[in-house]
Specification:
alpha+beta; PH-domain like; 2 domains; 4-stranded antiparallel beta sheet; 5 helices
């Protein structure tokens, strides 16, 4: 099984910042400290200090957990092209295993977003007919070296055209 490009850690890290950051906004973590301060009868200055400390604490929490998320997601994402098709293995808590046979592959796209271009990697999207359950393609590989992504696209295209000729 192959691993992703090391730049994928940054992609996972940024998604962790977004996930944990929005969770904090959603649950209003920094709004808890002033409420607790008011309930305890604290002064306005101490409420302000509690609010600032809770914001700084939450930022530290987001950074730490995003780093843990990025490392765990990167270390648990594998792919492999074998004789039958693409095999994917991913997931932190719930493992997800996918097999995409060459017979079902319809299209292969290479996507390079701004972060991917800065870090030198591409995303490979292998699309199959009728798959619409996820915003990405069924055979989504989030981070490959740019040259490897081109080579894999050519390899898979040769495989599917050879099968169609038979």
């Amino acid at each position: 099984m192959e691993r992703l490009h090391p730049g994928a850690r940054w992609q996972f890290r940024i998604s962790g910042y977004l996930i944990f950051g929005f969770l904090g906004i959603f649950f209003g973590v920094w709004g808890i400290a002033p409420i607790v301060g008011l309930l305890l009868g604290a002064s306005a200055n101490s409420i302000l200090i509690l609010a600032l400390l809770s914001i700084l604490g939450y930022i530290l929490f987001v950074i730490i957990f995003s780093e843990i998320y990025a490392r765990m997601a990167y270390n648990r994402w594998f792919y492999e092209f074998n004789d039958a098709g693409l095999r994917l293995e991913r997931g932190i808590i719930w493992k997800r295993y996918s097999n995409v046979p060459y017979e079902r592959i319809q299209n292969i796209d290479i996507h390079r977003g701004i972060i991917a271009r800065m870090l030198g990697f591409s995303s490979l999207m292998i699309q199959t007919a009728g798959y619409s359950a996820h915003p990405y393609a069924e055979g989504y590989i989030p981070a490959l070296d740019m040259h490897l992504a081109e080579q894999l696209r050519i390899f898979v295209m040769k495989k599917i055209t050879a099968r169609k000729r038979k």
